[in-house]
């Protein structure tokens, strides 16, 4: 329950003092990043997880949109989905959609490698 309360407190603070999200997060040289590690960071107040999976980098929200479960406690399945450890909601990492359409989509963010070799996560363009 402490994890849920921390997530609720974070959400409340974001609503009370909204800040403009940072447009991008530069993780550094892609060649030097540990592909077996989960990388945690922020796009402004948005908590983001970056992982290497199935031959490429992917970025998504750190918390489940259903009940704010911690998605850093689980790994992608072979079918390209990730399940929330709290209630089992399963999200497609390519689209963010929850398989049974019981809640909103998981936020996903594009990852690119710049011309100088840095891995960058960015907010989607409107």
UniProtKB/TrEMBL annotation:
User: Entry's InterPro entries?
Assistant: Rieske_2Fe-2S, Rieske_2Fe-2S_sf
Q: Does the keyword Metal-binding apply?
A: yes
Tell me the GO molecular function terms: 2 iron, 2 sulfur cluster binding; metal ion binding
- Kindly give the Pfam families that the UniProt entry links to this protein: Rieske (PF00355)
Task: Report the residue ranges that make up the Rieske domain in this protein.
Answer: 25-120
- Start and end residues of each stretch annotated as Disordered: 1-25
Q: Which CDD domains match?
A: Rieske
Record's keyword terms, sorted: 2Fe-2S, Iron, Iron-sulfur, Metal-binding
> Where are the compositionally biased (Basic and acidic residues) regions?
1-18
- What's the cofactor? [2Fe-2S] cluster
Which PROSITE patterns does the protein's record reference? RIESKE
Q: Does the keyword Ion transport apply?
A: no
State the family named in the UniProt similarity comment for this chain: Belongs to the bacterial ring-hydroxylating dioxygenase ferredoxin component family.
What is the name of this protein? Rieske 2Fe-2S domain-containing protein
């Amino acid at each position: 329950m402490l994890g849920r309360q921390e997530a609720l407190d974070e959400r409340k603070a974001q609503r009370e003092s909204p800040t403009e999200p940072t447009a991008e997060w530069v993780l550094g040289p892609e060649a030097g990043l540990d592909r077996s590690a989960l990388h945690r960071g922020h796009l402004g107040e948005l908590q983001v997880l970056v992982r290497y999976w199935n031959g490429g980098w992917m970025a998504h929200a750190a918390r489940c949109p259903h009940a704010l479960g911690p998605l850093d406690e689980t790994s992608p399945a072979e079918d390209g989905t990730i399940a929330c450890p709290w209630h089992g909601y399963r999200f497609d990492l390519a689209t963010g959609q929850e398989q049974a359409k019981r809640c909103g989509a998981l936020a996903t963010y594009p990852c690119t490698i710049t011309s100088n070799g840095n891995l960058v996560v960015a907010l989607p363009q409107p």
